[in-house]
Amino acid sequence: MSAPDLNLLLVFEALFRQGSVTRAAAQVGLSQSAMSSALGRLRAQFGDPLFVKTRSGMLPTPRALELAPALTEALAMVRGAMGKREAFDPASSSRSLRVYMTDVGETVLLPTLMTYLEKHSPSIRLETAQLPAADLPLRMESGEIDIAVGYLPQLPEKIRRARLFEEHYVCLTRPDHPLGRKGPLTLKEFLAARHVLIASMGSGHQVLERTLAERGVHDNVALRLPHFIVVPLVIANTDLIVTVPSRVAAVTARLMKFKVHPLPIPIPSFDVSVFWHERVENDGANRWLRAAMVELFANER
């Protein structure tokens, strides 16, 4: 292979992060035709298509996934050696950052976060991403995911973290639900009820599913979903109940007047944290967004 063109490495990085020729071109300041031409040179240099057009966007080939960690690390080293640690000005920056969080996390965090960003960094752009938690370490190492937020105990130690708050589970029902009408929701009532189970909350929440299964609730799961968004509409018109983190229950209850019940079975509380790869420890935009999340949510009651 001939000596690498560092500009092409920037093109690779942008395509890997954005999954779109148009968005990648905007990130590096090229026209769409120039970006397409640069992709052609990348393909020739590495002898591989690298990125293939699909209905889901430009997806990396296995060769691109193999190259991504080394190339992004090389770019970080070059930037450091050249002293090109760009000063980050939140008031004027139009940086785009990809944040992993489930829709449960979006419900709790994004309204407050976007209000803060509108005031302090009005041009910054966020894109949330949902993917299997097992894929997160590689996606963070490659730079495809800038920050992850949630309960993610399976992330390796090289992924750095800052605790935001402690969370626990509660039960959510429609306000006139017969359960818990004469007092606190009892264990007998909870076990006999028909349940909605959300499977999107990330692998850290498997303890909830295991505990419910051990108590026999698994046989009473009427609806299993990969996301939260439709759950309020379902339980508003049925006798189904759902177990969710307390903050998402509080948000939902404020919007639609649901009833929140203490969970009648013991399930340990858990920490919600913000995570980032050591590679972006000193990236100005990443560091600023992490600090904003800590300011907004750390030790929140």
Structure description:
With 301 residues, the protein is an alpha/beta fold. It has helices spanning 6-18, 21-28, 32-46, 62-81, 103-120, 136-142, 187-192, 206-214, 231-235, 246-256, 284-297, and strands spanning 51-54, 57-60, 96-100, 125-129, 147-150, 159-167, 169-173, 195-198, 221-225, 241-245, 259-262, 270-277. The chain has a 5-stranded mixed sheet with strand order 4-3-5-12-6. The protein has a 5-stranded mixed sheet with strand order 9-8-10-7-11, covered by helices on one side. It is elongated, with a radius of gyration of 22 Å. The mean pLDDT is 87.
As a percent range, the share of helical residues equals: 40-55%
Rg over C-alpha atoms, rounded to the nearest angstrom: 22 Å
Q: Strand order of the main beta sheet, please?
A: 4-3-5-12-6
Order of helices and strands: HHHEEHEHEHEEEHEHEHEHEEH
Tell me, rounded to a whole number, the average pLDDT. Answer: 87
Fold blueprint:
Blueprint: H1 6-18, H2 21-28, H3 32-46, E1 51-54, E2 57-60, H4 62-81, E3 96-100, H5 103-120, E4 125-129, H6 136-142, E5 147-150, E6 159-167, E7 169-173, H7 187-192, E8 195-198, H8 206-214, E9 221-225, H9 231-235, E10 241-245, H10 246-256, E11 259-262, E12 270-277, H11 284-297
Parallel strand pairs: 3-4, 3-5, 8-9, 8-10
Antiparallel strand pairs: 1-2, 5-12, 6-12, 7-10, 7-11
